[in-house]
Amino acid sequence: MFSVRGRGTARRLAAATLVSGLVAAGAIALAGPAAADDAPGASGGATAKLGELKIFDGVKIAGQDREERGGLFEMQVENGGSLLTYCIDYRTTAYEGKQYKEVGWDQSSLHNNPDAGKILWILENSYPTLKVSDLTSKAGVEGLSDETAAAATQAAIWHFSDDLDAKPVDEKAQALTKYLIDNATKVEEPKSSLSLSPSSLAGKAGDRIGPFKVGTNAKTGADLSVVPGAPAGLGIVDKDGKAITKAKDGDDVYVNVPSGTPDGDAEIKAEVTTQVPLGRAFVSTQGKSQTMILAGSSNSTVTAKATVAWAKKGAVPAVTVAKDCAKGGLEIIASNAGDEPWTFDLKGTSYTIAPAEKKTITVPLAEDEAYKFTITGPNKFSETFEGVLDCKTATPGPKPSETPSTSPSVEPSPSTPGTTGDTTGH
Description:
The chain is of the alpha+beta class. The protein has helices at residues 9-24, 116-125, 132-139, 146-161, 171-183; strands spanning 47-61, 67-77, 82-87, 94-96, 99-103, 166-168, 194-197, 200-203, 208-216, 222-226, 235-237, 246-247, 252-256, 264-274, 281-284, 292-297, 300-310, 317-324, 329-336, 342-346, 349-353, 358-364, 370-376, 382-388, 410-412. The chain is built from five helices and 25 strands.
């Protein structure tokens, strides 16, 4: 569980090196207000592996005897790059080595949190976005270190994410926490680093299948390509049918399938190198682990993929799946671009999608429930979806005097993906 270690020189040097590396890459920049573009069934967003709690100091939680550690985690982006995150799920264990995915607030514990925008304000106006010297001027707090500034920021975030009365052990840091809580105002949710929506469409050979909408915060736009293995002649085009290799935020793109192409499917890919916006949520895709919120990003490589399928006759299915935290389950959108009905089974229920029909199906799940299911159809259609429903912060347990503490800890990841380990902090 979280133990408090000394504030050694080596740790300070490591903290300074990590943050300066992100600053040098232009990562610690303010995320201005933007409309979220996480449409249901979108693919994309950064994926990263959770590392250690890197920059931290002691925090006391009201009603608990034990001193906790609060601060910044480091994460390594799958395709290159690094991230710094704070925790927004205090009572859940953080498992080092777990795989995480960038999601919109609607797919995380922030979906029903009226103070989510205040958390983003804290990220924009505290460490590491602002250096300790800048915080001295802005907040009027002197004598902070990287570690105590991180602990103060985490304590303020826990106030809004987990309704905790949290105070840094360091008295100077307590003043920063109070300043952040007292001055926080709501800021709009940031855009996705990259998305393709929907993640799956179907049609017929000779058609332009689409549109797929591109969403990205990268000013240079996204690079587009067809994943190797697609039939000859298949390409990505704009609404006028012109072949394209790049797309900007908000652009619609299509996949041109030449007439006479044998029945089949293919993947397209969008890719950007960008800084993931402050305030993006990161949730575990390998079982229960603390939900994180982004505090800083180096230039990171992010990809999004979408599938297209086509056939001359019969049913031509497409399926997208997204978490629906508001409804407590999964939102499955099934469509049929063919000329015959398509029937499939899902969790013991049979569904039929008529030609040219699109149907939305909500599958209820319990909080923290792991899921894995496969939807099949004609022409060897098969899509498997796997994950865990993680939509709430863990609720308080009995008083600390009655049972062991429910505080979070950093533990090695369980060896079996999709299973949860101990979330009690032991």
